Amino acid sequence: MRHYLMIGLLLAAAAGPACLSLNAQERSPAEVRLEAAQHMEEVEGNLTRAIDLYRDVVRRYGGERDVAARALFYMGRSYEKQGSQEATRAYQRVVREYGDQSQVAAQARERLAALRAPVPVAGRGPVARRLLSGADTDINNFVMMVPSPDGRRVAYVDLYVGALHLRDLASGAVEELQPGLPAAWNWSPVWSPDGTRLAFLKAAEERDAAGAHVEAVAILDLASRTVTVVPGTEVTNPGRAMIGMQPLAWSRDGRFLLYRTSPSGTFRGEIGIVPVGGGARRALADSVTGGSLSPDGRYVAYVAGPARGEQVFVQPVTGGARHPITDAAGGYTNPLWSPDGTAIAYQRPDGIWVVPIADGSASGEPRMAYATAGRTVAVAWNAVGGLYLSKINDVRIPLRLAVDAATAAPIGTAEELAHHPPLVHAFAWSPDGQRVAFVAATQEWESRGAAIAVHATDGSSSISHRVAAPDERIQQMWWSGDGREVLYRSVSRDGGTVKALDPSSGQVRELLPRSSSRSAFRISASGRHVLYWDRSNLPDSSQVGWVVAETGRTDGRLVAPVRDAAGVGVGSVAQLSPRGDRLLFTRQADLLATVTGQAGSEAGTLWVVGVDGGAARRVAAALMIRSAVWDPSGRFIAYTAAVDNTTTVFRIVELATGAIRTVPLPIRGPMEFTVTDWSQDGRQVGIVTPVGGFEYWAIDGLLEAGR
Description:
By secondary structure, the chain is mainly beta. The protein has a domain at about 1-115: Alpha Horseshoe (Serine Threonine Protein Phosphatase 5, Tetratricopeptide repeat). Helix content is about 15%, strand content about 40%.
């Protein structure tokens, strides 16, 4: 290919200036830049530079959809040559955002299909197949997706409204089996062994005079579409969180269900057996998570133990002592019996492990069977498809929105930053606007062990420092007033503090003593005040909340109590104004009701209060306020708000007038994007948005020995 392109360039040069001038006049600037990127990829072989050029074409010329679609496709091709998983995401964007460009979209689908083909995992027996992703459908919010016994269909619940769906994996046809809100909320579907019925937890939305509703395990017959309640599983719930009996598995003969309760909306509860046709339930253990029934129905596997120290246990269904089958530190989740009953698979932070089982006890040493990265959940293991995994690719990209510094009116639309690390959690511009600092994650969804990367805005330089320990999170980041250091909030098991990184030397210093009773620290731009969350006075909750203190002092003023006079709780969003004289913070009425779509449209509120605790006023409201930042003048606040269960919007409020402007963003789907920074010159607002989405995988051959 390089040979032919070089010949073409030589012929063009030999044709003379007139020919070159004519060609340049015929091509648009977007086409010229696209060809330059192709030249960098195919002639120069500089794939990293080519990717930057392709990204720049998409950013600059998104309105020329044919050119932008091709640039995105070629970017995926370059990533594929590098062996990077970013190729899949680039092709998915072509399908999702440029579906009207039929030829390029078809090519992207072909590449996605090729990348999903079974690929042996190096050195191991399993073969992984991706069955479904967010690029295959407009619905990108699957949870608890479980395969039918024949592997042809999947049942799942829409997280935003609680509707129960059925999808044919071959045709892509989707059918709503049970409506969600406002009629009901459904959860935890489980297939019967013959694939003719689904058991699930159903919570009626209709409430009695006391505000309680009824939850029960229901059985849906897929042929007749009739729904019956399993006798003895009804629970009257006075609260918002689901506490009823969550079905986990059917017995092979279809007569019993394995269940787990969720008292007070937790994920730990009683596990036991209940007859499908009615009868007394039999509890087996308490304070457990997970749950899987052996194929012969003799044993149940579950997880018990303290957080991060959980172990997998096996217990006879007829009663008797439980036996641990794991004993290492680090925590275990989601145990699943193999279809032949000879092994149990479980999750550790590094992947899927398998241990052989005989007569309810471990009969050999556990081994790593399949390495995973990012956020994955093992959901089922059957004889047809293997072990099924749900994966959330929480990849986030940084966007910049140009605004008028005087009025905060948007100028154009938000664009992706031209230069940034591949996995971004947050970012902030330096005071002079010449550099951008990023929280660069090591995994798609995790800020533990993250690095801080600093890029020149023109792409001329970049540097990265791994500043966080494996158990340390970076939760917020901003620049010092003089631009010499990047400050960030550090959180670990030992508590929270603020640290400062010198990007030029990589030196890190701790600015505040680490504390477990005081957390969420933020130092004002002037350095004179510090904001923190104080729970040191517990159990006296009246003194818990957001506190502002002078830097260096241990005493401060409680300016936003954990609950107001009406009992409404304070939110996690809080930031000092540029001058340090005011605080923005959020309140959220009934968080669980908000998540399940049962709260009012103004359950979330945005407030401004003086650091002396006076002149508090509400400045905005929505279903939920997700994030907020001040502009450098202190006259505006930019924030993101959920207005319903599927839509997040970006807004700017002018504090003097109360006027609120909703700004359209080029973000599709129910993405929970956040606003992270407002540049010191007042001309740019920073936004981080997820672009990855959901994927559904099957791993076959999990019991095979490594090759």
